[in-house]
Write a structure and sequence with these properties.
The structure holds two protein chains of two kinds. Chain A is an alpha+beta fold. In chain A, 48% of the residues lie in helices and 12% in strands. The structure holds flavin mononucleotide, iron/sulfur cluster and FE2/S2 (inorganic) cluster. Iron/sulfur cluster (SF4) is lined by residues 263, 281, 434-438, 441-442, 477-479, 481-482 of chain B.
Chain lengths: 147, 501
């Protein structure tokens, strides 16, 4: 992908929008998968911010990544309602299972699926409820098989 | 005539396989030569019955659930498009006792309406509040909200009318209405369900608020963990056309996506984030109502607060105020979560006891073991022991026991819970999510984790230190993240001391 061209397109669309930084960062991450450090100067210039400000925002928010992920991102809910139904055991299992895998594991603090936990989100939009270690292994096997 | 079948598109239903069920129903119908109209509605809130499939019959909507792909064939064999008998048949949806016993005001259309259809929204009574508001002077709308007794549903329970009046009276050429859809509390999902299941209701509430306070722009700040809610709102906005106009001009609404920060649910941190900065809490004053988004007077409310407004205007302030108990007027959509058999959304007037909610509605634990602790009001809420289960669910009664209702999240734990571990998690969560502005919150929470670790390792002398540390956090924190984290910690310690031995 031509990151510079993508970035130029995104910046053009948002330049005059008030408070454009978060929408811009979301679009960059959606397009590239993360926010490459080399995009920071252009974002700063276009939005009339300092590089430090842009970098500060990227590093402040848990959602924004500065490095590429594996082929899929699996988020396991670690918050209270999921803890109450075995979320910690699942999270521990996920850490072990995904060590060395090209599926990236991230913690997430509530997905709003608290009546049917433990909850898992794959690549932001695919949701799974009442997750067990066995179901998790089957899910990961499917993801890893998708070459 | 084609039969209409509803298969929820709500995120919880999706997580339980609703898309595959919808596909299987469509495919099976096609194979059998049956013409169906498939509507992806929101959830009725009975999460343990999801995917809950409904079919429209002459006797009204008939429910089946929880439906899985492998039973779809047998549903057709049982002639479910005509409401046929089947082991999963639950009867008329509205007669399911769990639903029938609720008082659904803000969620009256949830799971009923087609969330993508403005026409269906209007056909089911939507738009009436805004229609009335257009014929009222701004001050009269503010008065109606004041008279209803509505208080903020985001957690702080501040009287809405007072905020509205402040923004109305602020002189400025530009004002804003901001909807707080950050819903970061574990155990809560009513905002999500409403945005996914009845998005026009929220938009209508915002338009009424805009007309009342003199704002022609609104923002909805939705947490990034809710992509389906964002999509539902955007679809509704695209379909809204002139619906949001106040009769004088257009009311513009923009959906903004958060970025995984719990503190950005705090209203001033949220405004910082909307402006494109780190979500650091602002010092108050000035209040957002006076100097909010981009320095302009801003009315900021939770999703449920704003979505309650259309009904208040349509049915009248007095009708809303009649519900509830004491100074807690109206209803709250409680959310049953965690280790609970019948989890889901229960909208009832204030005043029911916690016990009624978790046993009569919730059916006790999901595991079948005794319930030992219930956390009410999110990560900053108290852990209540069985001895406090008879507390009535109203703001004052909860304040009296040092707890709060927050956004109405109820998280149940069975007797396997380790309360020292839960206290540790509360501190840990504060350490992860602290915005960093105040030392007692930023450093104190990390120290808190260490102190609890030492207590759990057997050093009981550290308990006094934990109490002192909590006191420092309460005194020296600029927002509830730091000042209320001690509530789950100390309630766990005081009500379940045996776990800290
Ligand atoms: C750490 C923290 C997180 C909060 N998170 C939320 C939230 O996710 N949603 C919300 O509506 N209010 C949240 N609040 C409360 C808001 O600051 C504010 O009171 C609310 O948006 C006002 O709307 P209301 O009057 O409708 O309740 C939070 C407060 C704090 C201190
Ligand atoms: S209490 Fe914590 S989250 Fe709140 S302003 Fe202070 S440091 Fe930030
Ligand atoms: S706590 Fe896990 S989804 Fe809400």
């Amino acid at each position: 992908m031509d990151i510079a061209a993508t970035l130029a397109r995104i910046l053009d669309a948002h330049r005059d929008r008030p408070g454009a930084l978060l929408p811009v960062l979301h679009e960059v991450q959606n397009a590239v998968g993360f926010i490459p450090p080399e995009t920071v100067p252009a974002i700063a210039t276009a939005l009339n911010l300092s590089r430090a400000e842009v970098h500060g925002v990227i590093s402040y928010y848990h959602h924004f990544r500065q490095e590429p992920t594996g082929r899929h991102v699996v988020r396991v809910c670690c918050a209270e309602a999921c803890q109450a139904v075995g979320g910690e055991v699942l999270a521990e299992h996920a850490r072990t299972r995904l060590a060395g895998s090209d599926v990236t594991l991230e913690p997430v603090y509530c997905l709003g699926l608290c009546a049917c936990g433990p909850a898992v989100q794959v690549d932001e939009t695919q949701l799974h409820a009442a997750m067990t270690p066995a179901k998790f292994d089957a899910l990961v096997a499917r993801l890893e098989a998708e070459r | 005539m084609r039969t209409t079948v509803y298969v929820p598109g709500d995120a919880a239903a999706l997580a339980l396989g609703a898309d595959a069920v919808a596909d299987a129903i469509a495919a099976t119908a096609a194979a059998r030569g049956i013409e169906l109209r498939l509507v992806r509605n929101g959830s009725r809130g009975m999460v343990w019955l999801e995917p809950l499939v409904e079919v429209v019959t002459a006797q009204g909507r008939i429910a089946y659930g929880p439906v899985t792909v492998d039973v779809v064939d047998s549903l057709f064999a049982a002639n479910f498009p005509s409401g046929g008998e089947h082991p999963l048949r639950l009867g008329p949806t509205e007669s399911i006792p769990w639903l029938a016993r609720q008082t659904r005001l803000v969620t009256r259309r949830l799971g009923v309406v087609d969330p993508r259809s403005l026409a269906d929204y209007i056909a089911r009574g939507g738009g009436e509040g805004l229609r009335r508001a257009r014929a009222m002077a701004p001050a009269a709308i503010v008065q109606a909200v004041t008279d209803s007794g509505l208080r903020g549903r985001g957690g702080a329970a501040f009287p809405a009318g007072i905020k509205w009046r402040t923004v109305l009276e602020a002189a400025a050429t530009q004002k804003y209405v901001v909807c707080n859809a950050d819903e970061g509390d574990s155990g809560t999902y009513s905002d999500r369900m409403l945005m996914e299941g009845d998005p026009f209701c929220l938009l209508e509430g915002m338009a009424i608020a805009g007309r009342a306070v003199g704002a022609d722009r609104g923002y909805i700040y939705v947490r990034s963990e809710y992509p389906h809610a964002i999509a539902a709102l955007q679809a509704a906005l695209a379909a809204a056309g002139d619906f949001l106009g106040d009769g004088f001009g257009k009311f513009h609404v923009e959906v903004r996506k958060g970025a995984g920060s719990y503190v950005c649910g705090e209203e001033t941190a949220l405004l910082e984030s909307l402006e494109g900065r780190r979500g650091i809490v602002r010092s108050k004053p000035p209040l957002p109502a006076v100097e909010g988004l981009f320095g302009r007077p801003t009315l900021i409310h939770n999703v449920i607060t704003l979505a309650s407004v259309p009904d208040i205007l349509a049915q009248g302030a007095a009708a809303y105020r009649e519900h509830g108990s004491g100074r807690s007027h109206g209803t709250l959509p409680f959310q049953l979560a965690g280790n609970i058999r019948h989890g889901g959304l229960v909208e009832v007037p204030f005043g029911l006891t916690l016990r009624e909610l978790i046993y009569d509605f919730g059916g006790g634990s999901r595991s079948g073991r005794p319930l030992r602790a219930v956390q009410v009001g999110g990560p900053l809420g108290a852990y209540l022991p069985e001895a406090q289960f008879d507390t009535p669910l109203d703001y004052e009664a909860f304040a009296a026991i040092g707890a709060g209702l927050g956004h109405g999240g109820i998280v149940a734990f069975d007797d396997k819970v380790d309360m020292a571990k839960q206290a540790r998690y509360a501190m840990k969560f504060c350490a992860i999510e602290s915005c960093g502005k105040c030392t007692p919150c930023r450093i104190g929470s990390t120290r808190g984790v260490e102190v609890i670790d030492r207590i759990r390792a057997g050093d009981r002398a550290q308990i006094e230190l934990l109490e002192d540390l909590c006191e420092t956090m309460v005194q020296g924190s600029a927002c509830a993240m730091g000042s209320m984290t001690p509530i789950p910690v100390l309630s766990a310690l005081h009500h379940f001391p045996e776990d800290f031995a």
